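TASK: fixed-backbone design
INPUT:
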């Protein structure tokens, strides 16, 4: 889509203003049902006019005039950044996140900020303080999370592409639920500066788009080292051109992990993923089944580490330095306690408490330290697998999108649904979710392709090759 829009804009078949107005009209007409946007920019048409000036002067770049949506945990000048939380209601960032600044420099048109689970903690986009985003394939179902607003908006064509963030699966799982392509880059590939921190050792910004080719184009624009984030290491690569060069799968070795197509995965999901594996085999790749028993421990390790880091990162939101301040403060201690009690939702409070407990003296060695050790072992295990294989195939989620009124009341049940996505962040690996089938009920199923560190080009190339033989699923619940 992005390449075609670029061609039409540069050929003057459509103007940047006309394109922006097209998306604004769709948002106005459809998003009342979907609730994917928290804020629509008031300067969209003015920004599009500026982009058109660059196009007319022959100075356009890949994203000049291309309308995009931004997850609401990315700091953005001129728009609120709330993380879908009462705690940050009305907060206006004085600076752009690095990824936002890079796209702004190219002349991208920002349509607005997209809904998410509060502070990126959740898998449903139902923990948002402001809206409950729906799935564009079935408005009675969740879009996934935490980047559910981004996935739903791309699926419903309310933006050309969107940025999300992925800590334990927050790009890949909603991409699977909403029938789009989502890419979690290698940790360090993209600067995290200006992304409100959840778990700093796991957070990674990435694209959600209609194809792997579009994700590759976005990665080219937003990746690279940044002086504001010392964990960002790699220079931008030409991921889109690399994707086009993959003409054959011959010689590639691909693994399927038994534990990720086991009894915990619903039958239709498993069948769709195994059928996709046959496509890779038919096109020249060697596909083999392997076992990784350690994956059984990935979810508890992920939740211990991420919650511990969240309890530290969110300590700054105390009603004094940042965030919501209670109307009846009383003492200084009351001010902080009431402000945090009123400002945070239940899921955020739960994870802060879990993280604080894991870091307490007497429990640190038994919980947090063991989780970190397991993450280190997981990196070693994956490295050993990738000595023999180029990629791993698995479901992006053990089930398709579930009904809003069926969201488990027991949070542990919901956490266990991260079994497919939680291990890649712990090992810092790149991973792509792309549609691979539909359930009998008309819901998308996502195939996840995970590769070694810095092999984002391979993951995107494999997803792109697979997509060439497939039609993107089109949602029908809105029109």
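OUTPUT:
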């Amino acid at each position: 889509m992005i390449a075609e829009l670029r061609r039409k804009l540069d050929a003057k078949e459509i103007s940047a203003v006309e394109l922006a107005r097209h998306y604004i009209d769709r948002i106005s007409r459809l998003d009342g049902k979907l609730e994917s946007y928290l804020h629509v920019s008031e300067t969209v048409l003015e920004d599009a006019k500026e982009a058109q000036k660059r196009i007319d002067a022959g100075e356009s770049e890949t994203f000049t005039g291309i309308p995009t949506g931004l997850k609401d945990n990315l700091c953005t000048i001129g728009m609120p950044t709330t993380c879908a939380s009462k705690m940050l209601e009305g907060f206006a960032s004085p600076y752009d996140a690095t990824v936002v600044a890079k796209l702004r420099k190219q002349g991208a048109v920002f349509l607005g900020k997209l809904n998410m689970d509060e502070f990126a903690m959740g898998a449903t986009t139902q923990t948002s303080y402001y809206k409950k985003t729906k799935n564009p394939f079935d408005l009675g179902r969740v879009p996934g999370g935490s980047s559910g607003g981004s996935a739903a908006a791309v699926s419903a064509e309310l933006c050309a592409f969107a940025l999300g963030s992925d800590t334990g699966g927050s790009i890949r799982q909603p991409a699977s639920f909403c029938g789009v392509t989502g890419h979690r880059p290698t940790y360090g590939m993209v600067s995290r500066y200006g992304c409100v921190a959840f778990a700093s050792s796991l957070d990674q910004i990435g694209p959600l788009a209609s194809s792997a080719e579009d994700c590759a184009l976005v990665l080219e624009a937003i990746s690279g080292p940044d002086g504001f984030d010392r964990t960002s290491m790699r220079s931008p690569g030409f991921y889109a051109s690399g994707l086009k060069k993959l003409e054959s799968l011959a010689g590639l070795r691909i693994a399927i992990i038994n534990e990720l197509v086991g009894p915990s995965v619903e039958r239709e999901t498993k069948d769709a993923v195994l059928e996709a594996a046959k496509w890779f085999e038919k096109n020249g790749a060697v596909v083999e089944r392997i076992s990784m028993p350690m994956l059984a421990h990935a979810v508890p390790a992920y939740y211990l580490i991420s919650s511990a880091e969240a309890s530290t990162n969110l300590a700054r939101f105390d009603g004094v330095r940042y965030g919501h301040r209670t109307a009846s403060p009383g003492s200084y201690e009351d001010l902080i306690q009431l402000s945090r009690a009123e400002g945070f939702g239940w899921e955020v409070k739960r994870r802060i408490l879990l993280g604080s407990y894991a870091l307490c003296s007497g429990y640190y060695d038994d919980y947090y330290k063991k989780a970190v050790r397991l993450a280190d072992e997981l990196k070693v295990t994956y490295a050993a697998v990738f000595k023999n294989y180029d990629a791993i195939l698995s479901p992006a989620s053990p089930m398709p999108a579930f009904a809003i009124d069926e969201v488990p009341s027991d949070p542990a049940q919901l956490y266990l649904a991260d079994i497919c996505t939680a291990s890649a962040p712990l090992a810092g690996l790149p991973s792509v979710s792309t549609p691979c089938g539909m359930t009998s009920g008309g819901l998308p199923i996502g195939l996840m392709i995970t590769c070694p560190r810095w092999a984002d080009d391979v993951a995107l190339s494999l997803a792109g090759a697979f997509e060439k033989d497939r039609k993107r699923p089109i949602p029908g619940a809105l029109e």
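COMMENT: The chain has a mean pLDDT of 95.
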